[in-house]
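Hi R.,

Here's the chain you asked about this morning:
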Amino acid sequence: MKNIGLLFAVLGSGVTISFLVMVNLVTNSTYLWFIYPVPLLLMLPIGLYSFFEQKHTLFSLIGSIVFLIQLVTINLIHTPSYPWFLYALGPIMMWPILSVLGKRNKNVFVASSMSMLFILYYVVLNFYISPGYLWCIFPAFAILWWPLSLYHVKKKSYFAFSVNATILMSVFFICINVLFSPNTIWAVYPIFAVLWWPLSMYFYYYKRKLNY
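And here is the predicted structure, written out as tokens:
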């Protein structure tokens, strides 16, 4: 049954891709819009095969290559002078790497190491492509939640997690405020809201636990 489904997916994707390419070239050959749906159609039979054979790493590897080729192609066609595909390279490459690591993703050391490499990549990219705009703090802020949450979940230190997370978010808001709108002090407002997280943890959970 799965062979029939896989064959149907291969034939269906092949016919659809051929049809889209033909329509594109016949109607408007100057704008190659077929490059947008083709990767998704290619991933359909690959995804089914990987699902049936339990080869998730293979799917992530092929998927990352396919989508990276698509982004590079679009980049070269429309804006060859600006390599914006590099912005998406980090998350795309993380997909097969995390798939290969498997259960080791739950290791705090692995999460911390991968996060540092991820941050380093975007710091270098930031200063290489757009040194006048410090945007690397945004992916850094996002990826730091991975090792931070893993560490505290393993330790079951949920109150400490709320404190450290509040510090992380506060530093993030302050950095954005100082870097992008230094004349308007607005960071105090989200920080005030975030402070209720550790306060509520302390008064309604941690302190009650100590009393009992």
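One quick note: The mean pLDDT is 90.

Cheers,
M.
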